[in-house]
Amino acid sequence: MTEIPVSLAEAGAFHFHPTDDPLWRIEEVGFNLAREHEIESLFAVSNGYVGSRASLAEGSALSNPATFIAGVFDTNTAAQGDPVPELAAAPDWMQLSLLTSGREFRLEEGNFVWHRRMIDMYHGILWREFDYRTEAGGLIHVRACRLASLADRHVLFQSIQLDAENRFPDIHLRALTAPVVERPGRVRLTPEPCPPSEDGDSASLLELCTHTTQIKVAVASAGRLRIGGEAVPPRIDPSPDRRVESWELDIEAGKPYRFDRLVVIYTSREVDRPSAMAAEHLRSLLNAEPNNVIAAHARAWEKRWRESDVEIAGDAALQRAVRFAGYHLIGAVNPADERVSIGARALTGEAYKGHVFWDTEIFMLPFYVLTDPPSARALLMFRYHSLSAAREKARRLGYQGALYAWESTNTGEEMTPGYSLSPDGEIKPILNGVLEHHISADVAYAVWQYWQATADETFLLDAGAEILFETARFWASRGLLDEDGSYHIREVIGPDEYHEGVDDNAFTNVMAQWNLECAAEAARMLIERWPDRWSGLAHRLDLREDEADRWHDLARRMYTGLDTRTGLLEHFKGYFELDDINLSEYGSHALPIDMILGRERTQLSNVVKQADVVMLIYLLWDRFSPEVREINFRYYEPRTAHGSSLSPSIHAAVAARLGDLETGTRYFHQASQIDLANNMGNAAGGVHAAALGGLWQAAVLGFGGLRLGADGLSFTPHCPPAWKALRFRLVWRGTHLHVDIQPEIVEIAAESGMGVAIRMGDAVPAWLGSGQRMCWKLVAGHWKEVSS
Ligand code: BGC
Questions:
Q1: Cβ neighbours of residue 433 under 8 Å, at least 6 residues apart?
Q2: Is the CB of 497 under 6 A from ligand 1?
Q3: Among this protein's residues, is 58 annotated catalytic?
Q4: Which of 279, 359, 608, 619 fits a disulfide with 690 by CB distance 3.0 to 4.6 angstroms?
């Protein structure tokens, strides 16, 4: 490995300090080895291009360091079960060992005086601080920070500062950037012989390659140590597959010792010459003061929060939890890459292999649509680029139009494994990739939501309309018109995955109905407003006006399962005849209910895995009468086991909209603890990105009661008295709004843009112009506009 010349800039201690506002910090004090895997997920740093788990730099017995690069998938063909591509773990770039008199510092040996890790959510930085007592009894104070730059997404940065109380001879500092160690069940990037490097300059680079997808990845890194401002060159051990820099030191009391490491990553996914790009980019950064990297990153975070913060006044734990959600959602997305989407655990862990589900469109997307439209657009463009794979899947299963993959990587092809192997070797088929079809309607729903919120005509005409038409086509081919004159969709899996192969799942049918109607409406709109674009698209897709009429007709005939006598929507055909299980009898079990009852018994029971009819009511709120919403929530809520992290937030949102603040806040608390208290027991595999998106929605669309319409926004807010105030920001068709909801008073300010029509509760809609502020008061149960 050859060296990139390092020109050391002015040295200095951290000029940057973490926020001291406790409401912007998540802290972990002390050290508990058993919690290490979940801390690694929770405290991960990510910018949507690259994400790194918060593993200890010096490692521990349980450390599981992993850095994931969006879109870099590979398949472990030797894996047990049905191998599918998964995010490949990139080299561990943050290893740093500290040896005093030959003895390595390890937290689990207990020789620290105190230890604290903290995410400064406001600036998107992971901090760590501790005092370490050496064998000889001296004290070293260590302060470190780490980030994945939001200002320059190819850049990772780490900085460590040591101060000693007394002099220490014989200190050895060793910084290593190397491929992660092999672990069962993980695909890692290895320095495989890639096709030869294109620029002949292998500099301080690790060049790696995926096996099956042949993606080249270049990791350029350089560490530098400065003592009281003076640069100290490292000893570099030559090695083709790792970069090892080390320093032998005599530490003197009172002098700051600062180690900075800059890492730059490029892949052949985005550039032709990743190695040259990484080397060049790193070189340019090495000429600058590293504090600038921190400052630019912190500014980028501040800017994102200005557009997306949610304040819950009066409840510090919930306040931190919604910011924690924002922290991971902001870090999960890259608006510059429309060829990837966000996996179920974003870039923070291995669970679900980095695969993309409906989680993105239904749970996370509203956050982006309303706070960062360019990111929402990129995510939807991913689905646009996946259309050919979705058409192919529909065709393969005997349908028309586009059926999106239940699990995707970056190709859009179906990546759900066909089966799993139980520990005793039993093969269990996984049917979701074949039967969970509601995802096509979910994507269409997200397209329409984005269109409503942004009026982005270019997107609609270039991509969105085609998604709406092709998904509608799928639904028009998926069902059957029966003798009863109704359109039925048989043999599906709905969001409630405990019941497989069911007929007329209310969620699937009504979302499909909505998709058909929406596509018909979009066709009408195109014909009227953009006739040329309609002709072009209709010609390319071989679409005739009467096809849209048929969508309309099928939507009208869709079997919905609504019993007009009782107001209940039957979850699926035959659901009401299933065994009635009283979930409260199983309340104290930590295990998921399907594991307690067993798969077969669960299928014969009426236990629902996660919000399904309740989800439908939430998404299509205005389609149902207040009675139907209430009756169904009361019926399904006690029968739902919340076997998925996606469920509590939606229950919180629906209960809040119904004005049941006690149930709403109970579920909101539950949703807020999924990662922070690891209450599903699996945060080790990464944060639950959909649950975090759901938490944001429960606050803004649930308690805030926000709904998007064709002509503007409507609110039916319910602020729990204990919260004192719920405040949030959003952008609607270019107008930036600040919403301040208190239990009996609401104030909305339009800070820029063209203005927006707002309907508060059942008050008459009012126009809020740019620079204006409006105020409403709750009087005898009704919102009344008052002068602000
Ligand atoms: C849930 C799905 C979800 C997936 C990934 C499953 O347990 O049932 O709805 O898409 O996890 O989060």
A1: 405, 406, 407, 414, 415, 416, 417, 418
A2: yes
A3: no
A4: 359
